[in-house]
Write a structure and sequence with these properties.
heterodimer; A: 401 residues; alpha+beta; elongated; B: 251 residues; Rossmann fold; six-stranded mixed beta sheet; 33% helix
Amino acid sequence: MNVRDLWAEALHGVGTRPTRLFLTILGTVLGIGSVVVTVGLAQTAAGQIDKQFDAVTATQVTVEPATSSTGGTERTLAALPWDAEQRVSQIAGVVSAGAVATLDVGTLAVTAVPVNDPSQAAKAPPAVMAASPGLLDAVRAHVVTGRYFDAGHDARADRVVVLGAGAAEKLGVHRVDRQPAVFVGDVAYTVIGIIDGAKRVPALDDAVILPAGTARHDLDAGPPDQLQIHIATGAGQVVARQAPLALDPNNPDAYTVKAPSAGSAVRGNVQADISALFLALGGIALIVGGLGIANVTLLSVMERVGEIGLRRALGASRRAIAGQFVVESVTTGLLGGLMGAAVGVMTVVGVAIARDWTPILDLRVALGSAALGAVVGLVAGAYPAIKAASIEPVAALRGGV
Amino acid sequence: MTVDLFAAAAPLEPAEPAQPDGTQPDDAAPVVELRAVTRRFPGPPVVEALRAVDLRVERGDYLSIVGPSGSGKSTLLNVLGLLDRPTSGEYLLDGRVAGTASEGERARLRAQRIGFVFQSFHLLPQRTVLDNVVLATMYGGVPRARRRARALAALERVGLSHRVGFWPTTLSGGERQRVAVARALVTEPHLLLADEPTGNLDTASSAQVMALFDELHADGVTLAVITHDLAVSARAARRVRIEDGHLEEIA
């Protein structure tokens, strides 16, 4: 009796009682399903946390002057220096840094061409901001066209500007190769580039950005509002401790630092605890499922004593009988595993859709858990198979089939 | 049935290597040879179902075994069918030692040399008539490609070609027993063992089955039929009676 015959006979045995088969595999389906759901949701949630992490805090430190409010007025305790960029660049873990300030230009108009069109509806002018040369990298914005200004522009106080994408749209500037100009008041500034994607400081998107030196020379700009620092992953605590000292060794308390907290680690631990709990429940369900298969296979052996006797009389060896029942229970387990994996994957995808998450599930987990069902079937079928093989044909043939 | 030409041409030469106990397998040997076979069931009380039974069944014999209930008929059939082992004594099947052969060897002999027909048919209810017959070829080692044709031929021989795709539960008793006979014949056994084949059948169905047995006997099949129905046993060419484990020929 070869393997193909064995499978054919076993599939017949499994397939002739569909209702019982369904009830038998229910435990395995639940067990495998909960394992897949647990692992899948853990992976999905982990991916989701990583994303938030990255999007908000994981690699970004913000330094602002501390404020104190006395008698209803709020004032800053210290001023950020415009060379803060150089001062913090020596700290381990700092990838890039840049200072930024929003300028109050009063009543000065910000226009692309000095044309006074009375028929045009008044539009809110774009903001005017001053930035240090490192800001582009610090906020991880990118240049859409042209270039960003450098330390030379800053030092010489060149009359150049970079436009945020929103501001460029508003001013009607789409290309910089013809050196368009933007007027702040009646002073012309050459547009050298357009940037976009400054999610860390969204205001940059709608701003006309001047080099800090130029802003101080022409518009009497004050100190920066904030210092944006792009840090290496995990350097948050170090940078948060050292940046105020680097900025003002005498008065480090004058700055407020926003750095990635260690709280995410706690959240990760909570997640891990929940996963362990669900995995344990899944494991228990799997054991119960295995016992179910063992029970039903044993019952099936008892019911089919006559058939076993007949097969022995027809020349089946003990091994062939044992093999048939093992293959039957492995098939049952595998079916349960496949269904469980399918149910699990669908649940993970469903939850992810409901929460607007990206479902993440290792394919190996889905396939492996289906195979786990087969293993459960194998273990569960071992005892009934031995029992079936040990039935004496003489005794078995006394009853009918 | 396999025919060993060399054994026929040179009967003194053993066709296969001599077995450990010195017996020589030989196709000229009787199909069944029991030498002082005893089967004792450990008690309490100890039951001696067979007591020093000697029996030779030659090729082509049609043997009926009669006796009252509890006389040891079924035990004898189980021993002959390699479903049970004798407590002592020797059993040679086709000249080969079968009584003390290994479990795997006995399974192989059952599959290839012995066909069973049971009183209660023993057909699998969830399989078609054809599948039930094919089942025997699977264990008999018939190549997959030839199984279906062999099974169809066996069904035709018992006159059931028109019932091939039926479920056994929809057949009459006589038809079911003929399916069982087809299943027993499909591997071309050297010995066909029938245990009360008409025990569950009415007179008409019994007549059908007995007529079929007569045909098989005419075709040269070796038959051993256990029965307590004297009408059935009267059809056999040779009759033996078993009583209290003792076997005796009926003239």
